[in-house]
Design goal:
Strand order of the largest sheet of chain B: 12-11-10-13-14-15-16-17
Oligomer: heterodimer
Distance between the termini of chain B: 30 Å
Number of helices of chain B: 29
Structural class of chain B: alpha/beta
CATH class of the largest domain in chain B: Alpha Beta
CATH superfamily of the largest domain in chain B: 2-enoyl-CoA Hydratase, Chain A, domain 1
Largest sheet of chain A: 10 strands, mixed
Distance between the termini of chain A: 22 Å
Shape of chain A: globular
Radius of gyration of chain B: 28 Å
Helix content of chain B: 40-55%
Radius of gyration of chain A: 20 Å
Number of strands of chain A: 12
Number of domains of chain B: 3
Structural class of chain A: alpha+beta
Helix content of chain A: 25-40%
Largest sheet of chain B: 8 strands, mixed
Number of strands of chain B: 17
Order of helices and strands of chain A: EEHEHEHEHHHEEHEHEHEHHHEE
CATH topology of the largest domain in chain B: 2-enoyl-CoA Hydratase, Chain A, domain 1
Chain lengths: 394, 697
Amino acid sequence: MPSSRDVVFVDGVRTPFGRSGPKGLYAETRADDLVVRVIRELMRRNPALPPERVDEVAIAATTQIGDQGLTIGRSAAVLAGLPKSVPGYAIDRMCAGAMTAVTTVAGGIAFGAYDVAIAGGVEHMGRHPMGEGVDPNPRFLSEKLVDPSALVMGMTAENLHDRYPAISKQRADAYAVLSQEKVAKAYADGKIQPDLVPTAIRTAEKGWGLAVEDEAPRPGTTLEGLAGLKTPFRPHGHVTAGNSSGINDGATGCLVAARDVAEELGLTAKMRLVSYAFAGVDPEVMGVGPIPSTERALRLAGLSISDIGLFEINEAFAVQVLAFLEHFGIADDDPRVNPYGGAIAFGHPLASSGVRLMTQLARQFAERPDVRYGITTMCVGMGMGGTVIWENLA
Amino acid sequence: MTNIDTWRALLSERSTDEVVTKALVRDVELPYGAGTMALITLDNGFDHTRPNTFGPHGLFALNGALSEIAARNDLVAVGVTGKPFIFAVGADLKGAASVASREEAHAIGALGHHVFRRLGELGIPSFAFVNGAAMGGGLEIALHCAYRTISSGVPAVALPECFLGLVPGWGGTQLLPRLVGPANAIKLIIENPLSQNRMIKGAQAYELGVADAMFEPADFLEESLRWAARVVKGEVTVERPARDGDDWDKAVADARFLVDMKLRGASPAPYRALDLVALARTASRDEGFAAEDDALADLLMGDELRAGLYAFDLVQRRAKRPAGAPDKALARKVTKVGVVGAGLMASQMALLFARRLEVPVVLTDLDQARLDKGVGYVHAEVDKLLAKGRVSADQANRLKALVTGSLTKDAFADADFVIEAVFEDMAVKKKVFAEVEAVVPAECVLATNTSSLSLTEMGSGLAHPERLVGFHFFNPVAVMPLLEIVRGASTDDATLATAFAVGKALKKSSVLVKDAPAFVVNRLLTRFMGEVIAAVDEGTPLEVAEHALDDLGLPMTPFALVQLVGPAVGLHVAETLHAAFPERFGVSEGMAKLVASGKPGVYAPDFSLDAEAVALFTGGDAPSTAEEVRRRVLEALAEEIRIMLDEGVVAAPQDIDLCMILGAGWPFHLGGVTPLLDRAGFARPRFLPPGVASVPA
């Protein structure tokens, strides 16, 4: 893709992800405080970056209400103590919010509008349940613009099983078990913790505490255990709480910079942005979105799928990952795919997840200097997919 | 029975209305694999407007939490922090005011020590994470910990005990000097409390050495826990200078000099605190804490502390809900203020109105040069505020634009509140208000800053006397917290409510007083000085009379006050009161001569006595002893206050005390004035029942 300057991923961090709800880690913690914590940690981990050199703070949230409203990129920048001269904005592409924050500031960097930007996302699905305050235009249904199932993500996942009849519930469950196992191993090997920001949490009842690891993973998950779970979206369906990502709270953020500026400042660039693409699909099968977006991103990069050595694909639903793998002829248990596991175990606080994928890919790149290219990709509500292709600079 | 059971038996039945601060314990995995910390959150379940305090039940709760922690062997550290914005602000004062026996008083001290010291004696490192306001016993909790971090956003760190009449006796006098050295400790324990109870901020506390590390509020706890983890792992070590080399004697002697200057022995607390600090140099923890227990018990059973608690309650509560003020809802909106006159007092008022109300303020005067000077004064003061960083450049522009001058009173045509600050002369004031009334809107409040003239007479020529109210500031206007709001015979409720609302917006404490000569503060100070000066006129050596009341610890001696106010003003008020009450208020010949001499007072610029000025008072042949002067003054005050209460000048003795504390700076340990008169036996019958501002009988 045309660009005046190379854009690099410098560093990424996130809060531990919590389970949403009154007993979750962040039950009484504000969403904007999670973002503040992420921004401050990025600045602390990268002391070579003078705060006034941050040219933009782009923060995504799906539900931009209350503590996720007030133009959260700007308000979190102020709360984080960045100089008031640093601007910020809020951005939304539902699940791909943080990914879009990265690609948008990257576009600005490539164009020369910025040198360094912070991009990230947050979703506190406990304080802001999916669909809070939405008001879908009645024309969607009256003119049959979308199928009635399009706005219920679990139903779109069931629809995807229809489109890929070879993907059985059993395959989806097996994939979910594998994801849990990989996350447990990644934790045991200390792959996840370095990029987590310990985050103070408080409840009126329990006082102050500290969130230090993800709350959602269920190590020891078995096929048998998953087999008995309900399929809430269809009688005798495929999609269960066990082979889907959960309802979660969390925030992510990363530093994106022009490669030459990163070098000038002494920031370590971990990945170079090669290309990115977003694509639309039928909203009722939004899970296939990553397929056309990846094809487009590969075409823009002049690469083929066989050039990709590592995949970080968001596991909104197991079936959506499996559809992607099936399309590209990749095995369900291919070790290049989500080596540290995925959202089925970590959780998926909607607009924040895109940067988690990138942060994990960067860490895998560091371990695998032999791998040149990797992708981060995810499906998006209302029928979209997003893909970013990265080059390993380790 | 163990000690704790004894205390529980003794203390847990009383103070049933204690708002209990809970000690919530939660395990925290420290970063860098440092291990598990038990983190205690102090939280009384209310928001920051009701800070954490410690009464017996709160202490028992903390003790329970510490017992649970002590019973575990899987912990590497213990931490204590507060609820949002508040760490803890010390002992439950309401509970302290109800202690009736020395045994109870002693138990409160001993229980506090027993619980707090466990923090430092658990065998694992303890950390206080001071996230918000930390005062008194709250700060002492932190001092008992091995390490402290503090947030740079903490608005208030203080040991206010000496201000109230106590000592920081839950470890403060022993631990702080050894931590930060005697000189720095004395700043917090003695100097700040005796300087209008000054508080310091987090950064200053860190600089003093009270905390070992400081972090920004945005992620204070997270960074504190990281720091604690590094301490636990041995990656960070905190140097603790031995304090034996510090010059303890000098620090204590310097402080004793300061305390003597301010109090002349009048309140025991700062002296006890100094003794305890001196003791901390060599005392063991047990000895030091035991000495603190004794000091607390003595002071808790002393009238000075009870008067201090009473006074504190007056300024904290009664001052915020003035007795007799009408319904707030009746107050009219004030969107523009007029000030008649452009002299110094008028200019000071204009600045205050502009800063606090943020509405246009117009000064009027007949003379352009005076007007320019008045407006110029305000602009210069705004520039000073700007230079000090108290206002931004934009705010300075705003304030300057708000204050203008006018040669005609037409500028008051859209004013809602016009106050006069012209010469203290009835005819002049009546003329001014007649002119003002001719131009202002129908509902405009007319306020007078008179210090002694009759409001009712002043309003007698007005078409609408019901909108005239007295609004008596004290000099300097920006600093002195008291506002006497005077209700005239005709003043209506809406006018009065507006006056109270304006007073509150000006951040003053308002007291409602009746239209009586010189209202409260000036009447009592004039009676007070009148007796002292009369004694001098009668032949008592000026120096004897001048120091006859030193043991009260008043903010200044009588002739120093004359000098501050100016002999001419003092004489004028005395003459006004003499006209009203000739049998009780005399007019001093010596004062008249002093005024005629043009001297600023009896003191030379270097504060030595000016022999020529002193000579103006000689000639009497009936000298009194200091004790006779003292008795005479206190009897006179008791008599005058009784008459004022009988006349209904204020609603209650509490209002007299509030006025003397806030308007004359009379000290907390006197409770203003009526607790002193009760205590010293001059009030017959008492002004306040026993126990209100004294140890319950």
